[in-house]
Amino acid sequence: MVYAASRGDVPVRLGPSVKNVPDYGPSTMSVECYRDPVQFELEREKVLTKSWLVACRTEQIPNPGDWHSYEGHGETVVMVRQPDGSVAAFHNVCMHRGPSFVPEWSGCGARRFTCPYHGWVYDTTGKLVGLPERQDFSEEHLRDVRAPAVAAEEWGGFVWINMAGPGNCVSLREWIGEEILADLGQFKMEDMVLHDLIEWDVPVSYKAIVDGFNEIYHTIELHHVSPEFVRSARDTSFIILDRDLHTEQGPRPTNYMCFVPRPDTRDQLAEDWDHHKYAICHYVVFPNTVFNCNPEHIQVFNPIPIDVDRTKFLTWQLIYPGDRNDPEYEKYFQRMSKHWEGLKVVVGEDIGIYQQLKRTKRSSAYQQHILSERECKLAHYHEQMAKLISS
Ligand code: FES
Ligand SMILES: [Fe+2]
To answer: Is there an atom of ligand 1 within 6 Å of 137 CB?
Structure first.
């Protein structure tokens, strides 16, 4: 039987008692943040290497010694399942002379990793455990050498990493925050399976892609949604989960939620404000993880910065597992596959806009954005990024 998410005890997010647009108001913002290489370097230093980032699915490294790689904003990291079930992560940089010492992107059952250049040997936590012709080196130079550790935790069936390193950042759960843990947690992503993962090479900033998921305004023109959807979407609730940005353990940014009533279930919603059943539920975990949830399936949009104006844009499709010999499940599977094909077309429309943004990204005429009050999550996101890089 396929699980269907339902609200349970989590707060009502839609309805007459809920304020659906925060007191943020219309605003404007400069567009330098999308193209300034100096700002990108600051983001690398102060945000991207201090944030919890989605790195792979738990199911991609099920057994001890299984590993998977992450690459983004110039960093290369390997996550390895440990014998005790935890995940260790480390920078994939040989401490001898610098190449990646785990050449393959993923694999299973590793007990050691040997650098292909001169044969330095590392354990599955990234610690140097041996090297040829050791007598020629200074023992002092070799003391406690390891590929720098990266913090790794699991939630929602994903392995997340934080390059600040273990003990140097807030926990993943604190980063995501109680409200999203409870609300998004209802979907039980840890029980879901990866149906498909697609990757686009996009010629704009990762933040321009996050922007597209922080508003629904563009769906009218770009995605040609139905008039019923447009009417229904006017009742969307936008939520900015404001909190103190700084803690002793490091930054802890504000995240965002958004609930879009589905036009086909308006009547049910009016009787029972169960947003998990009757709305599209949307969560943005700063800085680049976006969850788009429907009762039967979830997409995770993950624009990984490569450079100031280049992004590896991943979309993960998750569905509930089952036996395809069971006719009920097979019907569900076919329904999900059909929906996924349609959704890829929609994302393709977004990619089309990024191509148009590529044409203007250096234009002298492109100076500012004029934002509506319903684009407040987008405005708040950039305001928060500016605060983080200036602190
Ligand atoms: S560079 Fe890795 S062993 Fe020399
Ligand atoms: Fe879109």
So the answer is: no
